[in-house]
Specification:
By secondary structure, the chain is mainly alpha-helical. It has four helices and no strands.
Length: 82
């Protein structure tokens, strides 16, 4: 799976499942602020990633995640490790 497909899938579930406006999605957007995530939303995000990409995320994975680009990179790296 190439990076463009990963980004497209992530953006699609952010729009569909988290009701993020498409125009708010950009690589430099702050993940927490853009998605207005609370702790329960992070659980939903982890489930969405697992169901869409087959990778597991843990709390430590989010320590350095600030932007959507960081998140895209995290998912891409997790997929490469499969």
């Amino acid at each position: 799976m190439n990076k463009e497909v990963i980004i497209e899938k992530i953006n699609d579930f952010l729009i569909d499942e988290f009701e993020v406006e498409a125009e708010e999605i950009s690589p430099e957007a702050n993940l927490k602020e853009t998605l207005e995530l609370d702790s329960l939303d992070f659980v939903d995000l982890v489930v969405a990633v697992e169901s869409n990409f087959g990778v597991k995320l843990v709390g430590e994975d989010f320590v350095d995640i600030v932007s959507l680009q960081n998140f895209y990179d995290l998912i891409e790296n997790k997929i490469k490790m499969l």
